Amino acid sequence: MTSLSHPAQRRAIIDTCLAMNGAGINQGSSGNLSVRVEGGFLITPSSLPYDETAPEDIVEMGFDGTYVGQRRPSSEWRFHRDILKARPDVDVVLHTHSTFATALAVHGRGIPSFHYMVALAGGDSIRCAPYATFGSQELSDHAVAALEGRLACLLANHGMIVLGKTVKGALALAVEVETLARQYLHAHLLGEPVILPPEEIARVAEKMRRMRYGLPPDEDAAPEDTARPREA
C-alpha cells in the first residue's frame, strides 16, 4: 500500500477548515483551502463537508492543472493555483463565504483604512475584485489582480480570500478581515467613517513588522515611549 503524501499538511488543512466553520466565518462545505507543497499544492475536495473529510480526500494538484486522488479538487482550484504561482511569498490560500465580508462584497465594496488593523492585510485597503462566475479563469484573474501587494481581498457577490505562510496565520487573518468587515458595516450606521491616510497605515505596518520580528523600536520613538528591561 502506498503511503499518503504530506500527511501533516493534509491533517492541518482539515483541522483549519473545521476551525474556520467553528469560528463562524464559513458554513458547510463552502469555502476552500490550499497549501503549497513541493511541485504543486494540496487543496480541499469539491462538495465534501469538512467534518466528513479524511486526509486521503485532500487532493494533490500540479501547477499544470493535473491532480491525483480519489476526489475532484475544489471548483475554485484555478485561483488557488494562479495565486500560488503569482505569489512565491505565500504558501496558503484560504477562501470563505463569511457573512460580513460577503455583505460588503455584494455591494462591490472593499474595506478602506477606517481602522489601523487594515494594515494586517498588507496595504491601506482591502480591495474588492469584480464579479465573475465561481471557478472561472476570469474570477481567478480578478483575484490575482486584487491581491497584488495585499494578503486579503473580497470577491464581489461571493466572499473573501486571504493568504498566509501558514494555515494558522491565514485563519487568523481571515478572522481579522471578517471582524473589520463587521466593524466597518456597523460604523456606517453613524455615517461615513473617518479614513486614515496612507502614510499612517505605512507607519502602522512598520510598527507591526518590528513587533512581529522582535526588532528594536523605531529610531524616531522618544526614549520615554520605549519600553526597556528593568535593571536587576
Automatic annotation (TrEMBL):
The keyword S-adenosyl-L-methionine does not apply. Signal peptide: none annotated. Gene3D superfamilies: Class II aldolase/adducin N-terminal domain (3.40.225.10). Keywords: Lyase, Metal-binding. Residues 213-232 are annotated as: Disordered. SUPFAM superfamilies: AraD/HMP-PK domain-like. The lineage of its organism: Bacteria, Pseudomonadati, Pseudomonadota, Alphaproteobacteria, Rhodospirillales. Residues 11-185 form the Class II aldolase/adducin N-terminal domain. Pfam families: Aldolase_II. InterPro entries: Aldolase_class_II_sugar_metab, Aldolase_II/adducin_N, Aldolase_II/adducin_N_sf. This is Class II aldolase.
